[in-house]
Specification:
- The complex is a heterodimer of chains A (188) and B (122).
- Chain A has 188 residues and is mainly alpha-helical.
- Chain A is built from 7 helices and 3 strands.
- In chain A, helix 2 crosses helix 3 and helix 5 crosses helix 7.
- The longest helix of chain A has 27 residues.
- Chain B is built from 5 helices and no strands.
- Chain B starts with a helix and ends with a helix.
- Classes of the chains: A mainly alpha (188), B mainly alpha (122).
Chain lengths: 188, 122
C-alpha cells in the first residue's frame, strides 16, 4: 500500500532530484524560498510527465557512472584534437566508414546513453538503432554466419558512422570495451 | 590579471575549436563526414567558452559564483547527440550520397519497402 502510494506520488525520484538541481542552478542560489519552490516544481513536473517514462532507469553503480563520466571527459578532449588534425589534414587520407555495433545492452535508457556518448566523442556519430527483427537475418547473411553472434542477446545493432576508420574491427572493439562494457555494469 | 589571462586563453581555445569545426563543415566530402565538424565544435569549442565565462563572472567585481554555465553544458550535451542522430537517420533514409559504403543492415528494410511499393503499383 505504502509502496504503491510512493510510486504514484514520487514516480521518478531521480528525475525529481535532477529537476531540483537544475532549478537551483538556474537561480544560482540556495535560499529557502528557492529550495521550496524547486521541490514543489520537481515533484509536480515528474508526476505530470510520468506517463512519458513508463520505466525508471536502474542505476546500479552510481560511483562507476561518475568515473565513466570523468573518463568520457578526457576522451572527448583527446578525440577533439585527433579530429582537428583529421579535418585540417589532407582530405584524401580520410576513410569514412559505417560500422555495425552489435548491442549487448537491452535497457532502452542505457542504449540512449551509449548512442549519445558515441556521438559526443569526436570522430564517431551514432546513426541508427536497428531492432533485432530487422537486423539478424541480413547481418548473418552478410558476414556468412548463421545465428546470432555470441554476446548479443538483444540482437539489435547500433549503426555508427566513423570519420576515419582504417580498421573497423579495432574501432568496434574499442567502442565495445571503452563505452559499452561499463554501461552494462552500471545499468540493469 | 592572472584571471584575465586565463579567461582569454579559454576563449581562444574555444574559438579555435569552433573555427576548426566550421572548416570541417566546409572541407569534408559528404553529408555524413561534414556532420562530424559541428558536433565536435559544440563539445570542446563551447566548453572552452563556458569555462571562460564561468571564470569571468565568478571573480572580480561579481559577487556570486556563476553556475549557469554548467546548465548550458548539460543541455547542450543532452541535445547535440540527439539532433546529430536524427540528421544521419534522415540522410540514410533519403539515401544522401555517402563516401562510406552504405551499411548492409539497412538493405532488408529497403527490400521490404520496395515490396510495398510494388504492391501499391499493381
Amino acid at each position: 500500500m505504502l509502496r504503491r502510494l510512493l510510486r504514484t506520488w514520487f514516480p521518478h525520484p531521480l528525475l525529481s532530484l535532477t529537476l531540483l538541481m537544475i532549478w537551483l542552478l538556474l537561480n544560482n542560489s540556495l535560499g529557502l524560498g528557492n529550495l521550496l519552490l524547486g521541490t514543489v516544481l520537481a515533484l509536480t513536473l515528474s508526476r505530470l510527465t510520468a506517463n512519458f517514462w513508463p520505466e525508471r532507469p536502474h542505476i546500479l553503480k552510481p560511483l562507476k557512472l561518475l568515473r565513466y563520466l570523468v573518463q568520457l571527459f578526457f576522451d572527448i578532449l583527446i578525440a577533439n584534437l585527433q579530429v582537428a588534425v583529421l579535418i585540417l589534414g589532407p582530405r584524401k587520407r580520410l576513410r569514412p566508414t559505417f560500422v555495425e555495433l552489435p548491442l549487448e545492452l537491452t535497457d532502452p535508457f542505457a542504449i540512449t546513453v551509449l548512442a549519445s556518448v558515441i556521438s559526443l566523442t569526436p570522430g564517431t556519430v551514432s546513426a541508427d538503432v536497428i531492432p533485432a527483427a530487422e537486423a539478424t537475418s541480413t547481418t548473418a547473411k552478410a558476414s556468412g554466419q548463421t545465428g546470432d553472434p555470441p554476446g548479443n542477446p538483444s540482437g539489435a545493432i547500433l549503426l555508427v558512422h566513423s570519420l576515419d576508420a582504417s580498421d573497423p574491427a579495432a574501432l568496434l572493439q574499442q567502442l565495445k570495451q571503452r563505452y559499452e562494457a561499463p554501461l552494462l555494469e552500471i545499468f540493469r | 590579471m592572472i584571471i584575465e589571462l586565463l579567461v582569454s586563453a579559454f576563449i581562444l581555445i574555444g574559438a579555435t575549436f569552433a573555427l576548426i569545426g566550421s572548416i570541417g563543415l566546409l572541407r569534408l566530402p559528404d553529408f555524413y563526414t561534414r556532420l562530424h565538424g559541428p558536433t565536435k565544435a559544440t563539445t570542446l569549442g563551447i566548453s572552452g567558452m563556458l569555462i571562460a565565462s564561468g571564470l569571468y563572472f565568478s571573480t572580480g567585481s561579481h559577487d556570486a559564483t556563476s553556475l549557469h554555465e554548467i546548465l548550458v553544458l548539460l543541455f547542450l550535451f543532452i541535445t547535440a547527440p540527439v539532433s546529430a542522430h536524427l540528421l544521419v537517420k534522415a540522410a540514410l533514409h533519403r539515401r544522401v550520397y555517402s563516401v562510406a559504403k552504405r551499411p548492409q543492415v539497412l538493405a532488408r528494410g529497403q527490400r521490404a519497402q520496395a515490396a510495398v511499393k510494388e504492391r501499391e503499383h499493381r
